[in-house]
UniProtKB/TrEMBL annotation, chain A:
This is SUMO-activating enzyme subunit 2. GO terms for biological process: protein sumoylation. Belongs to the ubiquitin-activating E1 family. Residues 522-614 form the SUMO-activating enzyme subunit 2 C-terminal domain. Residues 470-512 form the Ubiquitin/SUMO-activating enzyme ubiquitin-like domain. Zn(2+) binds at residues 159, 162, 439, 442. Residues 9-422 form the THIF-type NAD/FAD binding fold domain. The heterodimer acts as an E1 ligase for SUMO1, SUMO2, SUMO3, and probably SUMO4. It mediates ATP-dependent activation of SUMO proteins followed by formation of a thioester bond between a SUMO protein and a conserved active site cysteine residue on UBA2/SAE2. The keyword Nucleotide-binding applies. PROSITE patterns: PROKAR_LIPOPROTEIN (PS51257), UBIQUITIN_ACTIVAT_2 (PS00865). There is a cross-link at residues 191, 258, 600 (Glycyl lysine isopeptide (Lys-Gly) (interchain with G-Cter in SUMO)). Keywords: ATP-binding, Metal-binding, Nucleotide-binding, Nucleus, Transferase, Ubl conjugation, Ubl conjugation pathway, Zinc. GO terms for molecular function: ATP binding; metal ion binding; SUMO activating enzyme activity; transferase activity. It comes from Cyprinus carpio.
Automatic annotation (TrEMBL), chain B:
Pfam families: ThiF (PF00899). One of its GO terms (biological process) is protein sumoylation. One of its GO terms (cellular component) is SUMO activating enzyme complex. Signal peptide: none annotated. This is SUMO-activating enzyme subunit 1. Residues 20-339 form the THIF-type NAD/FAD binding fold domain. Residues 194-203 have a biased composition (Basic and acidic residues). Its main location: nucleus. It is found in: Nucleus.
């Protein structure tokens, strides 16, 4: 029989005290996980989180107290853990894991990585880094009562991106602009309106009636006629919403009546009569009329939360008025050309969306919603409790123990359900799936690592001299001009050879004289001769075709392509071409950001792509 | 016991609303108010106890009494995260108090250093729920009998190495509500055609459905008669953990303690012996619990405490808030397999 150290066999206990692990995230799961790790006997732990502590975290992130609000989660978590386990060796990083400083070499320092994240972008990123470093990754997530844990090991299991994940829900423009039928449509519209008036204007976030709505047209010619008619009017649609608002001095009453809001544009919508053949038509609101109504349901608070009251139309009209005035002052204070960023925790911003959404709901005959409910939907708040995170974090450590012993055949995906399934299971372990052979991210492709100076190497150096096409203009640009930097991975396809090669770039300023680049480590079989990766189109073109390097399958390119597969570059104007995907991401996800305001983050990184926690309750 | 919300002055302050926001969004304001009015007794402050304490304090109960007569040892200190490093020799409940209170200043946390066996009956009546860890079978049966008749919710739980369980007795008539989606037939206004596409009511609206459920006593749950045909036929679907629990409870009764790593050899022998005796008395085969179990039931695994403590903590929250179907009546966790099973034993 085995010798025990506490509950563990001796060999296992010994390996725990020497191994190094990385915890990504110090929030709901992270706090519980850190506690479990040190109590189990792990000694060397690094934890990273870019966030600061908020009062709404305190119902579950138990390493934090009220006095810590505003401080770094990673830092305070470390301090709290040390208090009950002073011998633990913990390093805390108040930083984003997507910072290129945390490169493959950094990941290789660890025997195990455990995610405790709340967004897909970071999960995708860590997934790839762990694959590249060949370090096992334990992935997990929780939402409400549900949770899930799984193990990712290169070559043995599916990676995080082997199976497509459900994309976040978006609504068609005409639903938002013309025919909302659910409160969420009105809330999204209200957020768009906020941006149109006070924030960064976005062509994808129009609030005015959509004359091009296919449903509105009795026939195609009619639709075309409407479209040209409205343009001819030289009406508001020509002038941006913000300009118009500014021209009225953000007069709340004018805003209210203009349809932007609730009268004029609604009247316009009503003329699109086909839309209302089978739907209840919207009822426009007029500012003065509202105030002639009997002042209604503004009752006493009672024993409920103030935020959970549902006001009447007058109440929301008042709220609208008040919030517009406050936001106007905020804009003025910020100065010329200022923009506000919507934040659910900024009261006037939240008030504005609550009011505007509810007024629109009223116009479209929907039951209005309390500020509490609107905040949930507008802010994509995921309800969270301590116990779910506690269970999941316990499961993570149990999987970690098997992983460290390389007992991958024992590892499982485990689902936590709210109720037991017909086989009485509340916790459902499932065997891990093998890797998806056509996974774009983890399927084995030949790879080579090349060291060069991105500032000094020009595109042409990567291309065969035989290359010809009209695109020589880019040949003399430096790689760094395209956002290629240390850690970038380029995919080179050669259709003549039916060969794809991944090139990992390590930026170096210390190459020997006359050496343009250096192959590091082994080059794969069938690798091209060192001087010429292969014929390649220039990078910019390649990227135009492949707008989404991280999630799509290979771009259907006509010719040979060099694609940036994985740039750590942050979106910025100079790299617009190089990483259109990331800037698109930034725009599209207004409706679905996670729980945290941009301002709290240490770096204005890519916004978290969505709020999903990848929870599936299996039966 | 809280029957109606109006029973106590249950206004949630803005401060509480801010702190409990993420859980109010999950289980609702009514549930939070009921929690806010509940007092809980927690017996035993080792690994599992600390987890349950944390979970209940964070949830926002009115009061939590930590009861433990034992002293802090190096082993017990390492098992949990509430006891400071320099507290060896102090009472376990007392030593845990400060950190427990800091988890949530809005909860009244108290420490009681008496042995639970020495407490008179009326001591238990001041609580809405009682949670017993590291207690002997006899004590648990006694407290269960005492409390169930007074509508005090009773919970038991333990962690043995990689294994853990929880038991609950919510009484003969436990009332609770479940939130179900509202089904609305389209009843549309005059200017719609009969084929109006969308219902007028927000499809996200829900309704509360009231339910009642009954529980078995602990005594009956542990004294199942396995000799009758019906019980025998259900054996195949019965988790072995149920029998493991019987063995460990017997060990605890006989030795006055749980199996300890320091006396691994002799304790393992004794465990195997007890297994044979217990199963024989039940008229069952020793094969139901293969020998390997002895390697994995010593001490408390921290991650297993977290899992069992999480499920147990949530069951207490559910029972006090009277919201959502409780697990009935055992939860067994096997940390080697990662499986967690809910099963019912006892009177039908």
């Amino acid at each position: 029989m085995a010798k025990l150290v506490g509950p563990l066999r001796k060999e296992l206990a010994d390996s725990l005290s020497s191994c190094r692990v990385l915890v990504v995230g110090a929030g709901g799961i992270g706090c519980e996980l850190l506690k479990n790790l040190v109590l189990t006997g792990f000694k060397n732990i690094e934890v990273i989180d870019l966030d600061t502590i908020d009062v709404s975290n305190l119902n579950r992130q138990f390493l934090f107290q009220k006095k810590h609000v505003g401080k770094s989660k990673a830092q305070v978590a470390k301090e709290s853990v040390l208090r009950f386990c002073p011998s633990a060796n913990i390093t805390a990083y108040h930083d984003s894991i997507m910072n290129p400083d945390y490169n493959v070499e950094f990941f290789r320092n660890f025997q195990l990585v455990m995610n405790a994240l709340d967004n897909r972008a970071a999960r995708n990123h860590v997934n790839r880094m762990c694959l590249a470093a060949d370090i096992p990754l334990i992935e997990s997530g929780t939402a409400g009562y549900l949770g899930q844990v799984t193990v990712i090991k290169k070559g043995q299991t599916e990676c995080y991106e082997c199976q497509p994940k459900p994309t976040q829900k978006t609504f068609p423009g005409c639903t938002i602009r013309n025919t909302p039928s659910e409160p969420i449509h009105c809330i999204v519209w209200a957020k768009y309106l906020f941006n149109q008036l006070f924030g960064e204007e976005d062509a994808d976030q129009e609030v005015s009636p959509d004359t091009a709505d296919p449903e509105a047209a009795w026939n195609p010619a009619d639709a075309a006629a409407r479209a040209t008619a409205s343009n001819k009017d030289g009406d508001i649609k020509r002038v941006s919403t913000k300009e118009w608002a500014r021209s009225t001095g953000y007069d709340p009453v004018k805003l209210f009546n203009k349809v932007q809001l609730f009268k004029d544009d609604i009247m316009y919508l009503l003329t699109m009569d086909k839309l209302w053949k089978k739907r209840k038509a919207p009822l426009p609101l007029d500012w003065t009329e509202i105030h002639h109504l009997e002042s209604s349901q503004e009752e006493a608070c009672g024993t409920g939360l103030k935020d959970q009251q549902v006001l009447g139309v007058q109440g929301y009209a008042q709220l609208f008025h008040h919030s517009v005035e406050t936001l106007r002052s905020q804009l003025i204070e910020k100065g010329e050309g200022a923009e506000l960023v919507w934040d659910k925790d900024d009261p006037p911003a939240m008030d504005f969306v609550t009011a505007a959404a509810n007024l629109r709901m009223n116009v479209f005959s929907m039951n209005m919603k309390s500020r509490f409910d609107v905040k949930s939907m507008a802010g994509n708040i995921i309800p969270a409790i301590a116990t779910t995170n506690a269970v999941i974090a316990g499961l993570i450590v149990l999987e970690a123990l098997k992983t460290l012993n390389s007992e991958f055949d024992q590892c499982r995906t485990i689902f936590l359900n709210k109720q037991p399934n017909p086989r009485k299971k509340l916790l459902v372990p499932c065997a891990l799936d093998p890797p998806n052979p056509s996974c774009y991210v983890c399927a084995s492709k030949p790879e080579v690592t090349v060291k060069l100076n991105v500032h000094k190497t020009i595109v042409q150096a990567l291309q065969d001299k035989r290359f010809k096409s009209g695109l020589e203009t880019n040949n003399n640009k430096f790689l760094s001009d395209f956002g290629i930097r240390n850690g970038s991975r380029l995919q080179v396809d050669d259709f003549l050879q039916d060969y794809t090669l991944l090139v990992n770039l390590i930026h170096s300023e210390e190459l020997e004289k006359d050496v343009e680049f250096e192959v590091v480590g082994d080059a794969p079989d069938k690798a091209p001769t060192p001087s010429v990766p292969e014929e390649g189109k220039n990078i910019a073109n390649g990227n135009k075709d492949s707008a989404q390097p991280s999630t799509s399958s290979k771009a259907a390119a006509e010719d040979d392509d060099v694609l940036i597969v994985d740039s750590d570059e942050e979106p910025s104007s100079s790299t617009m071409e190089a990483s259109p995907e990331s800037s698109n991401r930034k725009r599209k996800h207004h409706g679905t950001d996670t729980d945290d305001a941009a301002s709290k983050r240490k770096r204005l990184d890519q916004q978290p792509a969505d709020d999903d926690e990848d929870i599936i309750a299996l039966d | 016991m809280i029957d109606t919300i109006e029973k106590e002055d249950n206004i949630i302050s803005e401060e509480e609303a801010a702190q409990y926001d993420r859980q109010i969004r999950l289980w609702g304001l009514d549930a939070q108010k009921r929690l806010r009015g509940s007092r809980v007794l927690l017996v035993g402050l080792r690994g599992l106890g600390a987890e349950v304490a944390k979970n209940l304090i964070l949830a926002g109960v009115k009061g939590l009494t930590l009861l433990d007569h034992e002293q802090v040892t190096e082993e017990s200190r390492r098992a949990q995260f509430l006891i400071p490093v320099d507290a060896d020799g102090q009472n376990q409940a007392q030593a845990s108090l400060e950190r427990a209170q800091l988890l949530n200043p809005m909860v009244e946390v108290k420490a009681d250093t008496d042995a639970v066996e020495s407490k008179p009956d009326y001591f238990f009546f001041q609580f809405d729920a009682v949670c017993l860890t590291r207690c002997s079978k006899d004590l648990m049966v006694r407290v269960d009998q005492l409390c169930a008749s007074r509508n005090i919710k009773v919970f038991c739980g333990d962690v043995y190495g990689y294994h853990g369980y929880m038991f609950s007795d919510l009484g003969q008539e436990h009332h609770y509500v479940e939130e179900k989606p509202k089904v609305v037939k389209g009843s549309n206004e005059a200017n719609d055609g009969p084929e109006a596409k969308k219902p007028k009511v927000d499809p996200n609206e829900t309704t509360m459905v009231k339910k009642t459920i009954s529980f078995s006593s602990l005594k009956e749950a542990l004294e199942v008669d396995w000799t009758n045909e019906k019980a025998k036929s259900s054996l195949k679907r019965t988790p072995a953990d149920y029998f493991l629990l019987q063995v460990l409870l017997k060990f605890r009764t006989d030795k006055g303690r749980d199996p300890q790593p320091d006396s691994f050899a002799e304790d393992s022998q004794l465990l195997l012996q007890i297994r044979d005796d217990v199963l024989e008395t039940m008229g069952l085969s020793s094969e139901l619990l293969p020998n390997t179990f002895v390697s994995y039931c010593f001490s408390e695994m921290a991650p297993v405490c977290a899992v069992v403590g999480g499920v147990l903590g949530q069951e207490i929250v559910k029972a006090l808030s009277q919201r959502d179907a409780p697990h009935r009546n055992f939860f067994f966790f096997d940390g080697l397999k990662g499986s967690g099973v809910v099963d019912y034993f006892g009177s039908k």
